[in-house]
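Request: How about a record?
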Amino acid sequence: MPQPLLDIRDLNIAFNTARGPIRPVRDVSMSIFPGQTLAVVGESGCGKSVTALSVLRLIPTPPGEYLGGQILFEGRDLLKLPERDMRSVRGRDIAMIFQEPMTSLNPVYTIGDQIAEAVILHQKVGTKKAYKIVEESLCDVGIADPHRRLGEYPHQLSGGMRQRVMIAMALSCKPKLLIADEPTTALDVTIQAQILELLRKLQKENGMAVMLITHDLGVVAENADTVAVMYASRVVEYAKVEDLFDRPQHPYTEGLFRSIPKLGSGVDRLDTISGTVPNPAKFPAGCKFHPRCVRMNGDAKCATVEPVVREVEPRHWAACHHAAGYENAAGTTPVLDYKRQVTLDVLDAAGGVM
């Protein structure tokens, strides 16, 4: 049986604040195999970016604290690695495209210096060779006249160009896993399409895995193999992308789909999910979505008992007391196995591990 490249198991993270501890990530499990794209979706504040940052151990401790779980990369638990070993993983084996390139790039260093630093560190090459690799990387991401761009500063580039520089920096050492946190935020649709096409091309050429964090369900439909839907610190639904779009099982996922504008629908106003994301310092009891849920109908269980993830239909998991088949699915599949089985189905459909 193929093994996942990244296997997150029951991850729990807390932040200690002046008002007490908060837990933005609770019992999160997900896996990614080589060549696969996993999309992580959900509203702001649901724990997507904190989960992604934890893979690279970029959560500051304190105030952050890893309460439990494992982050296995090629079988090694990253949470137990010494910091020196972890530095060799960052950038070389696992790279990340951060959400806002202008704040991620250092304004006082040239583009060439910033990318070359990672190349020199991880590939153990001299400065001349490193700059040649950087120039090739900029060319790969579609930047015109890459030699001239080496000496330019971030403020001299447009938003789309800076995003391409971030991609070039992340891919310069040919990582096995790319974490893309909102890689197309604030970009116009033309540049967004170009960047996503670029990522698909490079993924196919290099066989790398991608964790794609996004709010855009259109991006998910075109790029993902499997999808993890997060709400209020937990994964509430997990399935192959086709199954999720055809038959969403959690009311939160259904609400996300209802809010998508549809051409020619004749609808004057889009549907919305009532209420707001709960404060992580004051999560409600029971199902965290129940104050906003249209399925609850006064069911006391929703307000008192938090549902666990169960297989509600073949290869489709959800955490909702009112999902079809939820009660009959009790105990059929261990929680830690749900993401692995979904992924194996995807790999079988694709003809095996890339």
